Amino acid sequence: KKTPLGGSARKKAYRGTVPVYGALPEDTGHPPPSPNDSSAGQSVPAVASRVGPPLAIGCFVAAGLASTDLSVLASNPLVRDSACSIVAVVGAVGWLKVWTSLAASGAMDSRLSRKIIHCGSGPLFLLVWPLYSLEPNARLVAALVPALNMARLVAAGTKRDSSDIVTAVSRSGDAKEVLGGPLLYCAVLLAATLFGWRGSSAAVVAIAQMAIGDGVADIVGRRFGKRHKWPFAPSKSYAGSIAFAFAATLASFALLRWFQIAGCLALPFETTDLLARLFLISVLCAFTELVPAADDNISVPLVAAILATTLLR
Ligand SMILES: Nc1ccn([C@@H]2O[C@H](COP(=O)(O)OP(=O)(O)OP(=O)(O)O)[C@@H](O)[C@H]2O)c(=O)n1
Ligand SMILES: C/C(=C\CO)CCC[C@H](C)CCC[C@H](C)CCCC(C)C
């Protein structure tokens, strides 16, 4: 299709009307702005406000990185640890957003999305641990991830922030609820980071039991455990507890192996021996989950940590 202005005449006309754009239409693939286009002839700040703060921040970070020697950054442990924590914090926001959006769109039940968040958050955080530097302070930088999430939950639970974290993790949509199970969950991640860290099989097993064991018990129990309930815990089913024991064993095993492969911890057990020990821990944690005395986000990882300290050394 022929255009009214072609070749150099069009370039000249375009240069004349759009002082803030460095690129010509041929460079950008976009058509030239019409005389009515509100961006034509605007100043840089006006255009920046149109494209929005995220792009401005992105440009700022990119310009900073471009003017810095990246090899110096990569070899600096504090920079490396901060980068890991930034990735984890941003990842956590995206992770919650994905499941909340799926629930909001009707693609899945919000109880299921909440349980998937419960199952995935702790193990995903564990996967990041080996990427931190060997510095003793690395765990402090890593601890910022659950600490910041706790701050978000407290802000949301005390209504100082109407964040959609409430939609993601509260059962009923009541903001105060995030100060219960979800806050304890993050507190366990914080304690495991500060007092266990990646050389501790107890920290890894405690997180796997709390996240995967308890989460899978709920997901499976609700579907397959409607009829056969425990006599002393009428809301919980055999199916849920069996699923807890098997899923938590496999998750603990896989995460421990990941830490072994990454060179973070050494375990003196053959595969079958390790699996048997983890199964014993998981069965006992599945029984702990049936006890209504304490929140299972505290009781399960506590029992798991004690058992792992005794059985995995
Ligand atoms: N061993 C289990 C554990 C859970 N469930 C199912 O999962 C539901 C929720 O269990 P539970 O995690 O104990 O509920 P809450 O603590 O109330 O919820 P949450 O942990 O999500 O805060 C139960 O009603 C039951 O249907 C089950 O069948 N068997
Ligand atoms: C619904 C939950 C518990 C109820 O029993 C889980 C709450 C999850 C937190 C609000 C989010 C926690 C995020 C982690 C601290 C970091 C995850 C990082 C990872 C890379 C995604």
UniProtKB/TrEMBL annotation:
It is found in: Membrane; Plastid, Chloroplast. Keywords: Chloroplast, Kinase, Membrane, Plastid, Signal, Transferase, Transit peptide, Transmembrane, Transmembrane helix. It is an enzyme of class 2 (transferase). Its EC number is 2.7.1.182. It catalyses: phytol + CTP = phytyl phosphate + CDP + H(+). PANTHER family: DOLICHOL KINASE, PHYTOL KINASE 1, CHLOROPLASTIC. Belongs to the polyprenol kinase family. This is phytol kinase. It comes from Chrysophaeum taylorii.
